[in-house]
Amino acid sequence: MREENAVVRRMTLEDVDAVEEIERGCFSVPWSHASFVREVTENKCARYLVVEVQGEVIAYAGVWLVIDEAHVTNIAVRADWRGRGYGEMVTRALMQAAANEGCIWMTLEVRRSNAVAQALYHKVGFIDVGYRKRYYEDNHEDALIMVCEHLPPPQAGDGEL
User: Fold this and answer.
1) Catalytic: which of 86, 121, 141, 160?
2) Is 160 assigned a catalytic role?
3) 42 in catalytic set
4) CA–CA–CA angle 43, 92, 119 (5° rounding)
5) What are the pLDDT digits (tens) for 84-128?
6) Could you tell me the CA-to-CA distances from 142 to 57, 131, 159, 161 in Å, in that order?
């Protein structure tokens, strides 16, 4: 069950250490601290959200905005907070924020073996469209390509990235 006081907000430089820690706990080839700093400070196409509970960052999600497409870079929930709906919360917030920025569809890649993530993405409206062979560098696993062509309607002033 989710905490009622969970807040989804834009990621700041002050969040990078917590996000990097979540990243290291979730992915076999994690992004570096410097990568997240660049995403927040230099990449004009990058947008990131975090979920904060009682002052702690417990989840995050990122996207690159390219014309009318939002491409998900990463979505992760701290291990001790999984299974409580925060992955869905941050994914839906990311979808809304992308729609608010003018995007009409969203894409992502996910490991073929990651059934939990695939179930979440299907739940929020993504469909399977293909595979990228040997996509992941650590074990050369294939990636499932997923697309959501039905982002929520834009909402002025709500969830902007």
Assistant:
1) 121
2) no
3) no
4) 110
5) 999 999 999 999 999 999 999 999 999 999 999 999 999 999 999
6) 30, 7, 33, 31
